[in-house]
Design a protein that fits this description.
Elements lengths: L5 H10 L12 E2 L2 H11 L6 E5 L5 H9 L2 E6 L5 H7 L6 E5 L7 H9 L4 E6 L2 H13 L4 E9 H7 L10 H9 E9 L4 E2 L6 E8 L10 H12 L6 H6 L8 H10 L13 H11 L2
Parallel strand pairs: 2-3, 2-5, 3-4, 5-6
Antiparallel strand pairs: 1-8, 6-9, 7-9
Helix pairs in contact: 6-8, 9-12
Amino acid sequence: MILSNKSELMNILGGFDFKFSKTLGQNFLIDKNILDKIIEKSNINENTNVLEIGPGAGTLTRELCLWAKKVVAVEIDSSLVPVLNYVLNDFQNFTLINDDILKINLKDLIKEKFGNEKFTVAANLPYYITTPIIMNFFENDFNIDSMILMVQKEVADRIAAKPGTKDYGALTVGTGFYAKSEIICSAPPHCFFPQPKVSSVVIKLEKYEKPPYSVNDREMFFKVVKSIFSQRRKTLVNSLSGSPFISCDKNKIIEILGQMGLDEKIRGEKLDISQLAELSNRLFD
């Protein structure tokens, strides 16, 4: 069974009278080269547990099952359940859960399926749920080894952005605080069926054992970040002193920036993660 073959995939889907959902952003990967790169870069082996989000028709899922110890896939579309049960029938290490990843109790699921063992997240994420899913996994301190994500190029650009660029923002800082990012490969529209209107990128987020940035209060750090990037056109002083998320005295902010050797007219988007961490620590020591 070769699901990366478009004709074979169409035949299987047709046999179950499956209809694609634009609402769910369903575009199934049909490029074997990209599948191979994902497996290679993910370092998945017989000791690896995998949580796959949005397995679709099971193209990547079959490859994961060939290499991994255990694969647990969460699929929101109930019409894909019979398809997945068919294409993965010969794998004993596969478990399918028909549910919404944004609503399911992840802590209970992970505890039940993986216990205290580490796991890798693999996902082909629609644009509208990319950020909440990534941050949910990181903020809850799940025992993740890494995340291998197929995302829109725009999202990958934001994750891998450098300070001072237009793509640098809260998502950059949020992911960079918890993990090291690596672009694995690009995935143009022709690599999917049906073809999307945008290009995608496979990106790996390798979670740090311990974040390399020291913050006294993680909640306040992210409130500082949110304050800065929700008003990124303003100077850092104005975005923080006028923030609805934190209470900061303008003179104190200016004083701290001086201590850090930064101009009081600087915008927050110019600061890297270590500088943002230092700023937060000084503001809320």
